[in-house]
Structures are given as C-alpha cells and as structure tokens.
Amino acid sequence: MYLSFTTMRHKSKQDFSFLDMPSIVTFIVHGQIKRKRKLILTIDDIFGKGFIVKIKQTSESHRAGWLTTEAIAEGTDYLVAVGGDGTVNEVVNAHLDSGKNMEILIGIIPLGRGNDFVKSLGIQKNMKSLLKAVQNNSFTSVDVGWLTFYDANKMAINRYFINIADIGLGGLATQMIRTSPKYLGPNISYAWAIFKSLLNYKSQKVKITTPEWSYEGEIMSACMANGKYFGSGLCIAPDAKIDDGIAEIVLIGNVGIWDYLSKIPLLKKGKKINHPEVYYKKAMTCMIESQTQMPIDIDGEFVGYTPLKMVMKQKMVKILV
C-alpha cells in the first residue's frame, strides 16, 4: 500500500508571511523499516515546527525512485532518504534524472540493512543533526558514477551509483543476501552471503580498459568505489574520495576462499590488503568486458550483467551534512 501524507504545525502570523512560506522537506521512507510509527512521530515533532513535512512510504508498486520523482514534481526543497544504501541510490537516480540536482539537497537517515555510504560522510542516525543541516543549508557536493550495463536479455541499462559498483563476487553476494534471515542482522547477513558466494563462485577472465592502464586476467571481483565502505562496514577502498571525480578500482584476482576470508578483519580496520592477487588502481572512466556475463551490484543491489562502462561525474549531488 502506498502511503503519503503532509504535516505542518499551526503557526502564528509572526512565524512566516505568505511571501516567506516554509520549505518543503520530503522524507522517502523505506516501507519495511522497524519502528516506523515512532519514526514518523519523531519526524513530525522535530521538523513540523518550521517546515512543511511530507512523508512518502515505499511499497512494491511505489519504489523510492517513483516517490522521489513525485516529490520533485510537487516542488519539494529537500529530499531525505530514510533506509539503506539501496534507498539512497533510488532517490539519487531519480533526483539526477529530474535535472534538479543542483537545486534540491538530499539528506540521509541511515536505517537500512546496509548503511555504508554514510560512513564515508560521517552521517549518524540523528534527526536533530539533520534538522540543523537543513536550517543552515549545510551540504557537501559528492561525485557519482554513470554506468552502462545489460540485463539478462542483453538490453542496455543506464544507472548511477553513489557509493560502490561491484562486478563478480559482490554481484552474486547481493543476490544471496536476499535469502538470508532478517533476524541475523546486517553484519552476519553479509558475512553469510559472502561465504555462500565464495562456495559457489569461480573467478572469471576479464579485460579492463582505461585511458591510463589496462588489465587482463581472472578476477573474483572488481569494485569501482566512490565511497570507502561496502558489505556492512568493510573498507574495501581506503583511498577513495567522494569528491575528486575519480573512482578507486579494487581488483581481487584468483584468491582462494580461506585466503579471502582471512583478509576480512583487515578490511574492517580500514587497511589495504597486501596480496599479489589484489590490485588498487584509479580511473575516471573504464570498460570491463568478460567472456561470460558477470553479475553487477550497485550500492548493494543486484542490477544486471557485464559488459560494463563506467564514467565518473564530479560533484553532481548535494548531500546535507
């Protein structure tokens, strides 16, 4: 069921005039988050005193992207993604497609299963901090990656990523995590998905081409990182910067299952992996071709298959901080 409603507390004439109407803040809330009623009451309590608040909840027929497009058409001044990285990705894609990305600022309340992008920004689950950012119009401009890839029928698809795009093992893991029990929590769920994927996945031969370097050989995974973290807190790309127009490319070659698992504690600590089959590169654009179709995940969601082309676009989204 699609739910959308607007709240605004009563104001005296001294609070604002007709020519100084309050800004509209639209919250795009993932429909499956826990303690949703309490969240909505908190939003109303904190933002309802000075803003027109609109709350839109996702459903199977009304995804976050659709609701974002609707909110922009309604004249919203701020968009707030309430959920995980997948919700943020959908909001960002619709936001960029609208052409309003330089006008409308995006806030994030990280309440999803995976909340990795906000770790690169230092954003907390703090509604009052978000209120302060809105009041001060405090933001940072971040990059996005523009991807072209293919569905199972080899039809081309275009989509942005704001955190990390991953081919190979990560793409399979995002499919696996959908079947993991929710009671396990994000950290155990991701560990379970990675382990199960390692048991089922074999390295694939790829050709990666950039203007500065190229690679040809077998890989388990290729990560194109704007942010540093994925997989519920694994710092796969310690040198990634969200505003330099460059992706950190992390290639994991022919690494065995136990070798891979033994390196996870290093990733948790934000350290690079010192291994002859792990490579750290950088690129503004790249093309990845494979002998067989390899799964792709974007910001924690499975989206399609290789071949893939990536182009980084600098400072395209304004994120409230």
Please provide a written account of the structure.
By secondary structure, the protein is an alpha+beta fold. It contains eight helices and 18 strands. It has helices at residues 36-47, 64-73, 85-98, 117-121, 127-136, 169-177, 185-200, 257-268; strands at residues 3-7, 24-29, 52-57, 78-83, 105-110, 139-150, 156-161, 164-168, 204-209, 214-219, 221-225, 229-230, 234-235, 247-252, 278-283, 285-290, 295-298, 301-320. Strands 6, 7, 8, 9, 10, 11, 14, 15, 16, 17 and 18 form an eleven-stranded antiparallel β-sheet that branches. A hairpin with a 3-residue loop joins strand 12 (229-230) and strand 13 (234-235). It is globular and about 60 Å long.
Outline:
The protein is of the alpha+beta class.
What is the count of DSSP helices, taking H or I runs of 4+ residues?
8
Strand content: 35-45%
Decide which structural class fits the backbone.
alpha+beta
Q: Kindly report the CATH topology of the largest domain.
A: Tumour Suppressor Smad4
Helical fraction: 25-40%
Mean pLDDT: 89
Number of domain units: 2
Span between termini: 32 Å
Order of helices and strands: EEHEHEHEHHEEEHHEEEEEEHEEEE
Q: Give the CATH class of the largest domain.
A: Mainly Beta
Q: Tell me about the largest β-sheet.
A: 11 strands, antiparallel
Number of strands: 18
Shape: globular
Name given to the CATH architecture of the largest domain: Sandwich
Low-pLDDT parts are 9-18
- Rg, Å, rounded: 20 Å
Mind sketching the topology for me?
Elements: E1 3-7, E2 24-29, H1 36-47, E3 52-57, H2 64-73, E4 78-83, H3 85-98, E5 105-110, H4 117-121, H5 127-136, E6 139-150, E7 156-161, E8 164-168, H6 169-177, H7 185-200, E9 204-209, E10 214-219, E11 221-225, E12 229-230, E13 234-235, E14 247-252, H8 257-268, E15 278-283, E16 285-290, E17 295-298, E18 301-320
Parallel strand pairs: 2-3, 2-4, 4-5
Antiparallel strand pairs: 1-3, 6-7, 6-18, 8-11, 8-17, 9-10, 9-16, 11-14, 12-13, 14-15, 16-18, 17-18
